[in-house]
Every structure is written in structure tokens, then in C-alpha cells.
User: Which sequence fits this backbone?
């Protein structure tokens, strides 16, 4: 591919952040009612920090409901643009394209979305990205490799904007569970990342966290916070299911090298205490934060470790306000702040 693609870091300058108004009650069975107010909290924090939000809604009725919530919570509605699209769910991190730069222009690399290789209702979500990008005049490039459309979710990857990306073997290389691209090897993925994201170096971690419905998304356990620094979740209780996988990931990351030959500075990020609902372990993690222009939104869980996690991230992002978003209800959808949002870089 004769292009000069580069996937910017999340802390790079944004044109906007994409969100999709909640509309599928099956994502939060028994807890759907409060979810709109969590969205309101996110929208208020983003817009009051000057961030433009592109908000996907299904129809006029949803748009009216969203506008009422914006007014009630005191968000700056002038910074919210509405786009009406039919949707199955609304986890924009995973079904929206990878926005990359190509010689200064923003281009959308459109990968296939197959409901995390698990859920059948995904066709509407898969079509949203190309539709809204064409509406905005953004070029859409099909994400293909060896003549196949590649299945890849945004939450499976994290990048530092300098050619390094983080991902997990559990998500992309498991040959039996939630297989995104049957027959794809490590080399196939690395070639695709190089051609479509400008990746020079892939840091392969092992397993994701307990309760993760995606089978190993990296945005629940490890995130770049600068070109050479990453926060990595840590669980000190040896009896907890997350203890060993996170310790093994720490060993991998501490022995890794970046594209420029340097090592990765690893900052420990605590895990909240295990969170259960209806007997199900939920993927509660402070790593599922969103980095916006002047603010970082961090999920919180009514946990004593909330304050510690917010403090660590405040030190990692000294030029941004770190804001906690109450996510005890939100995480019943098996994802939180980062899973629901998707940044669009500025040209």
C-alpha cells in the first residue's frame, strides 16, 4: 500500500470524540435506566473541557432524549454534533474505524466488526463508521490483508503515536475462542498493522483480565501514557484470577523494547476489588480511561482504590484534569469509558 499512514496516540490533538447514545437495554439488563445519566456525566465533563463530541443516535426520539439529558446535567450542547444512524449496540471504540493520518490528512481505516466474534447482532454497527465518515468527507480505506477484510476492534489495540502498539495474544491469536480472523498468524497481524497503522513494533502481551467479554482487549489492562511509558494493572492478591496473568504481562513488558530501541517505563495501576453482579465477575478496571484534549475520564467503582488510581493517572497526565466517572452500573455492560468512546484526531 503506497500510503504514509500513522495511527496517532490518543493524547494527540482531537477533532472530536465519538459516543453513541445508549439504546440497547440488553447491554445493561436490569440497570438500563441510569446509563443515560452516566453518559450525561461524560458529555458534561468533555464539553466543559472544550472537547467536541460527535454523538450517534438512532432516531429523532433518541436525539430529543439526549438533548434533555445534556440540558439537565449542564453540558455545553453547542459542542455536540448529532448523527442519526441505525445501530445494534453502541460501543464506538470497537466498531468505528481506526483514524490515521496520511501526510497530514485524516483517513478512516475501516476494519470489519463481527460483534467480538461472539454476538450475531453486529451488521448495523459495522456499517456506521463508513456512513458517518462519508458524511463528513473523510476518506474510507478498507482494512484488508491478503484479499480479506480484517476483523479488528479498537479496544484490542493501544498505540503511542511513534509506531509502537500494544495488543494481546489472547484476543488476536487464540485459535478456538472468539476467533476474529481464522488462520491469521502473528506475522499476518504485524503486516496489517504496518501497512494500515504505520506500526513499526508490536508489543504482544498475554491474557486479559477476568470478566472481559471480549477475550483479552488490551484497553482493560495496559495503556500508553507517553511514547515510552505505559500504565499496567497490578493485582497483589495471589488468590485473585487476575494476579498471575497481570504479573506475566509485567514480565513481558519490562523485557520489551520500543521501536527506537528504548525500554518501556512501566507504572503500576491498581485493580479495584472484584466486582460482581448477579454472580458474574465484571471487568472493572481503571485502565479503561479516555484521554481527551484537556481532560482524562477514568471509571471509578466506589472502591477505596479509586483515589489511588486517580492520583496515579493525574501524575501521568500533568496537563490534564483527571475526572472520575461512576462506573458501577456502566460496567454491567462489560465495558466502561474507553470502550464506549472513540477519538477522532485532528488533521
Assistant:
Amino acid at each position: 500500500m503506497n500510503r504514509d499512514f500513522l495511527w496517532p496516540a490518543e493524547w494527540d490533538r482531537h477533532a472530536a470524540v465519538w459516543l453513541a447514545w445508549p439504546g440497547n437495554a440488553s447491554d445493561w439488563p436490569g440497570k438500563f435506566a441510569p446509563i443515560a445519566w452516566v453518559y450525561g456525566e461524560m458529555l458534561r465533563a468533555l464539553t466543559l473541557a472544550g472537547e467536541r463530541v460527535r454523538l450517534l443516535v438512532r432516531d429523532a426520539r433518541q436525539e430529543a432524549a439526549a438533548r434533555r439529558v445534556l440540558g439537565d446535567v449542564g453540558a455545553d450542547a453547542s459542542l455536540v454534533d448529532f448523527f442519526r444512524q441505525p445501530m445494534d449496540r453502541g460501543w464506538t471504540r470497537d466498531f468505528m474505524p481506526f483514524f490515521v493520518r496520511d501526510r497530514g490528512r485524516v483517513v478512516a481505516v475501516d476494519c470489519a466488526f463481527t460483534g467480538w466474534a461472539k454476538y450475531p447482532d453486529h451488521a448495523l454497527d459495522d456499517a456506521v463508521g463508513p456512513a458517518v465518515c462519508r458524511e463528513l468527507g473523510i476518506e474510507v480505506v478498507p482494512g484488508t490483508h491478503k484479499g480479506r477484510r480484517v476483523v479488528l476492534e479498537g479496544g484490542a489495540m493501544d498505540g503511542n503515536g511513534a509506531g509502537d502498539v500494544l495488543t494481546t495474544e489472547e484476543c488476536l491469536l487464540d485459535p478456538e475462542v472468539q476467533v476474529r480472523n481464522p488462520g491469521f498468524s502473528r506475522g499476518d497481524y504485524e503486516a496489517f498493522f504496518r501497512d494500515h497503522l504505520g506500526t513499526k513494533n508490536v508489543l504482544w502481551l498475554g491474557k486479559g483480565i477476568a470478566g472481559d467479554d471480549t477475550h483479552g482487549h488490551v484497553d482493560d489492562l495496559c495503556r500508553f501514557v507517553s511514547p515510552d511509558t505505559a500504565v499496567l494493572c497490578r493485582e497483589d492478591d495471589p488468590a485473585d484470577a487476575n494476579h498471575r496473568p497481570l504479573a506475566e504481562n509485567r514480565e513481558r513488558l519490562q523485557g520489551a523494547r520500543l521501536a527506537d530501541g528504548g525500554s518501556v517505563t512501566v507504572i503500576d495501576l491498581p485493580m479495584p476489588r472484584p466486582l460482581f453482579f448477579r454472580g458474574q465477575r465484571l471487568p472493572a478496571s481503571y485502565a479503561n480511561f479516555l484521554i481527551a484534549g484537556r481532560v482524562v475520564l477514568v471509571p471509578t467503582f466506589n472502591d477505596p482504590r479509586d483515589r489511588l488510581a486517580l492520583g496515579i493517572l493525574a501524575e501521568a497526565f500533568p496537563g490534564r484534569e483527571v475526572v472520575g466517572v461512576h462506573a458501577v452500573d456502566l460496567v454491567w455492560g462489560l465495558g466502561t469509558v474507553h470502550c464506549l468512546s472513540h477519538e477522532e484526531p485532528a488533521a
Q: What stands out?
A: The two ends are 21 Å apart (CA to CA). The chain has one domain: 5-345. The chain has a mean pLDDT of 97. The chain is about 25% helix and 25% strand.
